[in-house]
Amino acid sequence: MPAKTRTLSEDIAYQPLSPMAEQARLEALRAYQVLDTPPEKAFDDLVSLASYICGTPTSMVTLLDSERQWFKARVGMKADSTPLEQAFCRYAMFSDTVFEIEDATQDPRFQNNPLVTADPNIRFYAGAPLLTPEGHPLGTICAIDTVPRRLDPQQREALRILAREVVAHLELRRARMQLIYEQQKLEELLRMTNDTAGSMNVGGGQSEIFVKQEHKLVRLKTVDIRYVEALGDYVNIYVGQDRYTVYSTMKELEAKLPAKEFARIHRKYIVRLDKIVAIESDAVIVEAVRGADRASGVMPVPIGNSYKANLLSRLNLI
């Protein structure tokens, strides 16, 4: 069950979660994989905005683990973390609204806190809780000053909005990391698949290859490939009526194609030999896509001067 939020009035002492609820909260925090990561502009911008809106010299995005409060973003604060027992935010993150202390020296919960009696000499504190979509409190976005003050209703609402923005960025960050992880798994699967296929075709090249298209692997029979075209960091593979664009180099792809069946005819082109229907002075004519009337068309593919001799040596000339 997600942790239930509750309001802490000034006469209520800190009441930690039950062990089970705290474990669930910590697991939710760890799932974001954000603790001890470098600064990120999205979060830095939000604390700068919080400081501006609240008119305070200090603002932070705090995340509380089992031993400390760590600052994902901060302005006006030198330290990057403080012990958990000193954290104002351990109260604020359980509030269902902005938790505000006008003068910490007058509050019995904080008047002897080292953060009040020594640097950074906190007097004013206001923090809005960071709640996951499941209701787990992760920490706060807070504003701090060295002089007593009070927020007006518009500033409190703005701080609540910023708290929701922090969580939205955490969710986006996690989704982006998950996408990168899935892409890496797919690329590793592609590599293993083609390596396995390569080991079964030691004679040079493979009868089929797998190419990554969006979030899936597509199997292509090399007998169906007409030609390959280099395009910057990508290559286009022309198969029947389809074109597959993949992130690869011509050298990598050439090594995976059956050497006896394909020829490099240009730094930008590889053709399948049995798809060549004619050769002109500076181009090979390759069988093109069959139309609806089943008639077969042709398409010229340039020949590089340095590749022409090798190409001719591969053909049965009479």
UniProtKB/TrEMBL annotation:
Organism superkingdom: Bacteria
Classification via SUPFAM superfamilies: GAF domain-like
Membrane spanning residue stretches: none
Keywords: DNA-binding
Coiled coil: none
Gene3D superfamilies reported in the protein's UniProt record: 3.30.450.40, LytTr DNA-binding domain
Position of the signal peptide: none
One Pfam family in the UniProt entry: LytTR
PANTHER family: GAF DOMAIN-CONTAINING PROTEIN (PTHR43102:SF2), SLR1143 PROTEIN (PTHR43102)
Protein name according to UniProt: GAF domain-containing DNA-binding protein
